[in-house]
Amino acid sequence: MTRDWSAAGYAANARFVADLGADALGLLAPKAGERILDLGCGDGALTVRLVAAGASVVGVDGAPDMVRAACALGLDARVMDGQRLQFGPEFDAVFSNAALHWMPDGTAVIAGVFRALKPGGRFVGEFGGQGNIAAIVTALNAALTARGLDAGKLRRWYPTAELYAAMLRDGGFDVQSATIIPRPTRLPTGIEGWLATFAAPLLPDLPALDRTVLMDEVASLLAPALRTDTGEWIADYVRLRFRATKPAS
Q1: Is the pTM value of this prediction over 0.90?
Q2: Which of 15, 113, 119, 199 makes a 20 to 30 Å CA pair with 209?
Q3: Helix, strand or coil, per DSSP, at residue 133
Q4: d(CA 216, CA 140)
Q5: 3-class DSSP state of 114
């Protein structure tokens, strides 16, 4: 499952995604000499921090342009569907930030991660949890439905902490933590930049002009809820942060 995301557009409008991954990275606590898989590495903005900690890192992502950007940083990054990981038990840890909600077959992801980990290895990450960007999704659905268009392409997978913990256990993991964290998030380039990065690429069948009109309508619908009196946009992010380990034996 590949995605035609622009690395340049992502860097301009969504750099906050990697910047806000510091807490999940802290939960991972990478160590020098470890071999780590960065699942959904994007353009490598967090992957380089794993390398800086002294780890040997492989990054995988479904977006070819993002992988090219990661490789340009000197990283070992590969185009690969996270739902079809092609690794045996070679990693001490698998890390993922803001990517798992783009992989709706969570059971396949967990199975692939379990295979990729050495006994005792850990799976640590953060992604969209129940209620994530609910206002944005509602506005997008309303604008698309009014035009007789299918909003299904924009639906993402945002599970509860309880559901994801149960899925991890069913996949063989011991779960140390799984927590829902509301995190209102400032959008540096406004809702327009966010929509251009995360929504517009999923509507390739719309002519450019129609897409622009639709996105303007969505922004108008969202302004009362997400735009402050000073004109700043705050997205209604909700994250699910977790840590689990593969049994040592």
Answers
A1: yes
A2: 15
A3: coil
A4: 11
A5: helix
Paired strand residues for 57: 36
What's the CA gap between 225 and 141, in Å, rounded?
Answer: 16
Pairing assessment for the beta strands 35-39 and 91-97 based on DSSP bridges: parallel
CA distances from 57 to 18, 19, 65, 125, 149 (A): 17, 19, 19, 15, 41
Q: What's the domain range around 128?
A: 7-132+156-185+236-245
Domains held by the chain: number = 1
Look at strands 117-128 and 185-186 and give their pairing. Answer: unpaired
Rounded Cα–Cα distance for residues 88 and 48 (Å): 23
Residue pLDDT tens, the chain, 249 long: 445 666 677 666 657 677 778 899 999 999 999 999 999 999 999 999 999 999 999 999 999 999 999 999 999 999 999 999 999 999 999 999 999 999 999 999 999 999 999 999 999 999 999 999 999 999 999 998 888 887 776 777 899 999 999 999 999 999 999 999 999 999 999 999 998 888 876 676 777 768 888 889 999 999 999 999 999 999 999 999 999 999 998
d(CA 100, CA 109): 8
**Domain CATH code at residue 101:** 3.40.50.150
Q: Say how many residues make up the chain.
A: 249
Q: Is residue 46 included in any domain, yes or no?
A: yes
Burial class (CB in 10 A: 0-12, 13-18, 19+), 138: middle
Angle separating helix axes 134-146 and 208-226, nearest 10 degrees: 140
What is the full DSSP assignment across 22-57?
HHHHHHH---TT-EEEEET-TTSTTHHHHHHTT-EE
